[in-house]
Specification:
The chain has 297 residues and is an alpha/beta fold. It has nine helices and twelve strands.
Length: 297
Amino acid sequence: MIDTAAIGIDLGGTKTEVLLLAPDGAILFRKRQATPRNDGYEAMLHSVADLTREAAGALRKDMRYTIGIGIPGSLDERTGLVRNANSTCLIGHPLKRDFEQLLGRPVTVRNDADCFTLAECRAGAGRGYGLVFGVIMGTGCGGGICIDGVVREGPHRIAGEWGHVCMAPHGAECYCGNRGCIETLISGSGVEASYLRSHGHPLGMAEIVSHARSGDNGCRKIFDCFLDDFGRCLGGLISILDPDAIVLGGGLSNIDELYTRGIDRVRRYAFHDDLRTPILKNSLGDSAGVFGAAWLT
């Protein structure tokens, strides 16, 4: 049996993380850095390639390894071009082909929410559940579906793309071209944009949450709306899918109120008077997707 290591890359809108796993699963290398999202496609491509080479440098020269990358979008199954990415500079580019040319080896590319959901079902909060819906709430908002340990992609590779369900047809414009998508309501960027529209000056998500807890009326209104939107969005999802568990990930999953007041709002909107669906915080941390990326192949 040939020992094979695995490199996983989580290419997020805010941060990029690389992970190198030994054949026995031990972590040999891990690094996180800011994503150069404002510098264009080529800068992002070369940044990830450099991180991958750095991780591979921790291996013996003769050791085999695989590479998996989670991206905030998906590859078109016919053209191989990236689509539906909230890091919009990726859209329309042959990311898989370009990575493979730069690195000189095969690369597996999947949606980041699929990677997150796979990781949590294999080694995290979703273990032991049959049908799990994994939610990423960070810069953007996405989802993945895992059924009996297998992540469902679907024929269009959009299974679980919960973030672009339209909840408010007259709401804020989304980068996808529609209005009032879930991503415009309960992602970090969506909540920050809501604050900017209401108050005329920017404020980061962490500050909005902190000020709301301190009693600031303006931030409390924005935060209460966020929790209510969370409840409506998850309540509707549960009514359609009726999953065995939901696992929350991404930076916003660290907001404690989601698991108290947020769950109360979910109960209000789900189509059942005795809701028992576990809504769980991830157990692999807010970068669980990097493990899923490493386990893709």
